[in-house]
């Protein structure tokens, strides 16, 4: 029995989201915040981090829908301002940060680490497919993170290179153009319903990778029939297995 559903059997390339799909942002951020401010509990910092992350996603969505671009650093800074009030003790501490402390905390968003299945899974998939990254991050930061982690993509496309953010159609069009393939020969891989929905509108096939940090308010069971493939365990290594690569 073929491990892939019929719509994915002619796929020649995979386009990966990075933040939250390939890279774990939560672990390094919580480690940095609790180390700098142990007087705040890890749970409080975690709630604060999720709120900051959500605010950043809202900022990128606004830019993407308008087709405009502001640097990632500005969006993280604006996102931080949006969550300070009402964020409990963590918000009280963060509201008193100096400019240097704000910059230090924001810099941790450029120190994400791969999920444990990411590097091996991407390496396996690259044996038979073109595998590229498509991210709402910056090229310099992602090059550093990927190089440090040994995470090798055939190409990295980022918001600062394209001039807007997902879910702008321009982001997905840039990936298709770079690959030189038809949209239906390319699958978007992400842990975000909104990302895959936008990719689908541009003709890409869709693969959902479940990550505990992402889509926390979404009914994941309802997503199983929405996309071409849903991976709930094993992450990218399991995806590689479905495509015929054996670890």
Automatic annotation (TrEMBL):
Pfam families for this protein: Hydrolase (PF00702)
Keywords (A to Z) from UniProt: Hydrolase
One GO MF term attached to the UniProt entry: phosphatase activity
Record has Hydrolase as a keyword: yes
Signal peptide: none
Keyword RNA-binding: no
InterPro entries found in the cross-reference section: 2-HAD, HAD-like_sf, HAD-SF_hydro_IA, HAD_sf, PGP-like_dom2, S-2-haloacid_dehalogenase
Xref: PANTHER family: HALOACID DEHALOGENASE, TYPE II (AFU_ORTHOLOGUE AFUA_2G07750)-RELATED, HYDROLASE, HALOACID DELAHOGENASE-RELATED
Family label: Belongs to the HAD-like hydrolase superfamily. S-2-haloalkanoic acid dehalogenase family.
Protein name: 2-haloacid dehalogenase
Species assigned in the record: Rhizoctonia solani
């Amino acid at each position: 029995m073929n491990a892939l559903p019929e719509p994915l059997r002619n796929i020649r390339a995979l386009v990966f989201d990075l933040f939250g799909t390939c890279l774990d942002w939560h672990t390094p951020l919580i480690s940095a915040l609790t180390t700098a401010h142990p007087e705040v509990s890890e749970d409080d910092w975690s709630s604060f981090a999720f709120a900051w992350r959500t605010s950043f996603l809202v900022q990128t969505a606004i830019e993407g829908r308008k087709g405009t671009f502001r640097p990632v650093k500005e969006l993280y800074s604006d996102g931080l301002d949006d969550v300070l009030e009402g964020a409990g003790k963590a918000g009280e501490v963060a509201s008193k940060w100096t400019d240097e402390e704000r910059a230090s905390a924001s810099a941790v968003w450029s120190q994400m680490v791969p999920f444990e299945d990411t590097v091996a899974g991407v390496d396996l998939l690259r044996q038979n497919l073109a595998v590229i990254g498509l991210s709402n991050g910056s090229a310099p930061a992602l090059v550093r993170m990927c190089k440090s982690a040994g995470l090798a993509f055939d190409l990295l496309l980022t918001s600062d290179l394209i001039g807007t953010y997902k879910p702008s159609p321009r982001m997905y069009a840039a990936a298709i153009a770079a690959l030189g393939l038809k949209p239906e020969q390319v699958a978007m891989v992400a842990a975000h319903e909104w990302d895959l929905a936008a990719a689908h509108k541009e003709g890409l096939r869709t693969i959902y990778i479940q990550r505990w940090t992402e889509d926390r308010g979404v009914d994941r069971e309802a997503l199983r029939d929405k996309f071409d493939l849903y991976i709930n365990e094993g992450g990218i290594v399991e995806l590689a297995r479905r495509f015929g690569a054996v670890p």
